[in-house]
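RECORD TYPE: protein structure
NAME: GH18 domain-containing protein
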Amino acid sequence: MRDVFFALLLWVAVAVAVAGAGARPAASAVKGAYWPTWLTSTFPPSSIDTSYFTHLYYAFLQPDPATFRLTVTESDDIWMYKFNSDLHHCRNPVRTVLSMGGGGSNGTLFALIAASPSNRCDFIESTIATARKYGFDGIDLDWEYPADQKEMDDLGLLLDEWRVAIEKEARATGRPRLLLTAAVYYSVVNPMDGITRTFPAGSISRNLDWINAMCFDYRGGWNTTVTGAHAALYDPGSDISTSKGIASWVDAGVPREKIVMGLPLFGHTWKLKDPRVNGIGAPAVSVGPGDEGTMSFAEIVDFNKENGASVVYDKATVSTYSYVGASWIGYDGPKSVRKKIKFARAQSLRGYFFWAVAGDKEWKISRQGNTPYQRT
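PREDICTED:
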């Protein structure tokens, strides 16, 4: 009887070990934000209240156009060490991710990297070495955007090889594997500039830990004729909305647990044609207040208070806007962000991220997600 008991015990132990080896751990939720490097003098990493986040992105490094390896300036050398030291050793430590690219980066350079096996190899090796040297937990690519389907397909090859290299490095060093993520268009199909191209959903699903879908900038100063909700969750008048974009990624086969929804900490502004007509879609004549028609959430709060602006929550689009005189601002306030985070939970998404962390006002927006994020 004793032998039978120990045999059974051994069988259970082996079964548990085998099951554990093959099981995928539950995906932890993401509450992310990007920290742009131009904030070094005004909003250093130590200014971030990390209790509202799980992941923070250092944005951005760029590849060298001759070597295809990451360029690390003297300033980056200082601030990447500080970024990781401050955010790993604070009261509420977070995971850190090194992001490369960004909206102002050279898309042609990324296309050259992705198109060549040797260029991909040099770039990938450099990203891993740099991330390890400075103590990052992961790597993020923000290529805005592959210009045609060939470049999209090359992106898929880059991600395939990147994941292999990351796995290989982790096995060789015995260190935890680096995260691999990417900031992408809000929709799997990008029709920008009249050229329709589709992201490589298969490669993304195989290789990335998650995507950061940039669910904002649907409307802005590039169209000054009407006001708009630039991060509308729903849009009764068009297919350009966060809900439609997220659905396109899911329909393309990207698992919900690999989709992180973008939230803006900024707004776009317009000058109304007639101050008496001031809703979403109202006629406009130009951009409004702010830097070329853009204001951070913190600036919007101050502007609204100083000018006695009317603030409106729009249920149809799940967005916020304010107006005073001819000035009109479309953005996300606490209520619309709270509703969007509820949407992300209901959709079983991996989480959400903000662009960019310094745009908040006394953490009024960031704290909207500071409840247990459990995917349903």
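COMMENT: Residues 1-25 have pLDDT under 50 and may be disordered.
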